[in-house]
Amino acid sequence: MPTAPKPPFTAESAKAMVKFCEDSWNTRDAEIAAAGYTDDVRWRYREQFLEGKKAITDYLRARFKRAEGYRLKKTLGTFNGNAICARFISEWKDGESGQWYRTFGVEFWEFTPEGKMSLQEVSANDLRIEPSQRTL
Q1: 10 Å Cβ neighbour count for 118?
Q2: Does any domain span residue 4?
Q3: Cα–Cα distance measured from residue 127 to residue 50, given in angstroms and rounded to the nearest whole number
Q4: How many domains does the chain have?
Q5: What is the domain-level CATH number for residue 74?
Q6: Of 1, 29, 58, 76, whose CB has the highest number of CB atoms within 10 Å?
Q7: pLDDT reading at 132 higher than 90
Q8: Are 43 and 34 a contacting pair, CB within 8 Å?
Q9: Nearest of 136, 117, 126, 121 to residue 40 by alpha carbon
Q10: Domain range holding 63?
């Protein structure tokens, strides 16, 4: 994978960081997806609060195992200095129920000077879909 851009972000480097994050998650490999976080990252995904890269790696390992066919698309919302706000849409099949979902959300990220994510806050909503309604 390419190297993550470093702050302070420009329009070009902020878009590149969003794409870098999208690509790392689309590997569905927890270690690759978590490699961009600091060891002491603070992370909120919906109602879950996690601290540290190990906790996030463990969470992602379970998440990717359950979310079959997971695909993600992120777009830049806004940026300033070391912070980025991005929108996302993902589609995945629940490995237990077989139900397909489309998840919509917004993410807020803060980065260290080295380009590692130190804070991630995510608000998201799930929509049940039929396999024929998939777009990703």
Answers
A1: 17
A2: no
A3: 24
A4: 1
A5: 3.10.450.50
A6: 76
A7: yes
A8: no
A9: 117
A10: 11-133
Alpha carbons 102 and 22: distance in angstroms, whole number: 16
Which two structure tokens, joined as six digits, stand for 66? 């359950």
Strands (E), 46-82: 48-51, 67-80
- Rounded to whole angstroms, the Cα distance separating 45 from 107 reads 9
- Closest C-alpha to 69, from 88, 89, 95, 46: 95
Nearest partner of 124 among 102, 109, 103, 100, judged by Cα: 103
Q: Strands 67-80 and 117-129, how do they pair?
A: unpaired
pLDDT category, 128, cuts 50, 70, 90? very high
Q: Give the model's confidence band at 3: pLDDT under 50 very low, under 70 low, under 90 confident, else very high.
A: confident
Residue whose structure tokens are 């980025």: 84
